[in-house]
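User: Sequence in, structure out. Go.
Assistant: Echoing your sequence, followed by the structure tokens.
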Amino acid sequence: MTEVSAVQQNPKVTFHLYCFRNENAIGFLPPEGTMVVQALQFPIDFADCTCIPTGGVGFWSKAGVTNDLECQWYRPFVPINRKDIPDDLTGSPRIKNWICHQRRPDANSYPLSQLTVDDDEVHMVAFLGKKLLFRRLGEEVVLDLQEVPECQPFSLAIEWSPTHIEARVTWVDGVELEKHYSGTGVSYKELSSYKNPGVGKVVRFCERKEFDTLVIPAAIARAIWRTVEPSIDELNHPEQRSSNVAAVRKAYADQHDFSSTVLEIIEEVKQAIRRAKPHAFWDHNNPKRETETGSGLRMLFESICAYKNIQVFQEDPSRSGNVDFVFSAISIEWTHLNLVLELKNAHSKRLDHGLTLQLPTYLREREVLTGVYGVLWYKGTHFEQPSDPTLIDCIARLDSKKPAGVIAVVGFDLSFSVQASKK
């Protein structure tokens, strides 16, 4: 088990994971993700050292994408004895696919991974006896593994999103599975193309917790971004300019590159809202005011924008009034890039006015080339306005009126929808 701390004094980022270095911490920053540890087994203790057998590790910026990868058959590990292990445990040597290190101080716990920023915990994964603890940003699940045999290799998956966390332990049982042996884990370069053979009986233990919404605090996101910033060299590595929300960004090629990234961030926020219960945007059975809803959205925007090196300004003053959101970044040529997002309730009498007159005025006054119009949609079981049948119809109607400089009309669905079981 290796601990690597960031070189910078402020912030201090500490990341534990036996095969990753500190710069890999950014992979665990996005509001949604999955980590899979392959061919894992419970640790064992000798008088002076602890050993744990394990295979490869992979992580993704999405949840729910690794089911086939988890359902693998692993050969039992070759047993290890103290005489197999050298006296010098520097560097935590791997012996017979077991990682060996100084004896753990608490025989009842074994930390697998931990990420902290300035002593604020982002996540923790650990064995507690024959239980598995997965804690992220204060929310936790505990998976009971009492029924898992001591010598059973398994895949461990943890996944998270703004609305849930989950821990899974999975393996495959059966006879004559040797020809389907997948090794001690599919190699990292093969992860995306791995196809499970679909043989044997899948055994799975799972614990999941759902909540209204949870995103990584912007302060932590910014701290991690500042730590990895020196390693981002977009001039020499243009592939790092990917606008995918999981990619860390330092600068942008041009306004189009920046605007595309902001639109992807908006889409990610929309997906997070769709997965969550929208209580935060309601005052009992009444929609909140646009400014209050904007404050709720800001938390979601900042959690992603922080590690895309995009600043978010809410209620930014302009000559004609306060702009709901201004997104700002720097281009590779060191020019300032800006995008204005104006929000309006779908049931507002000034919905069309906001698109055709208000937003263009803000763009002109601020000398900003690009704007996005956001529609806040509440119509559902709790609210009957506006007259547009659906959000899609509302967006289509407004899209036909889109003035120059407004690149998109987007909808934030904040409604309480009719449950499928009640239709």
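User: And one key feature?
Assistant: Confidence is low (pLDDT under 50) at residues 1-9, 419-423.
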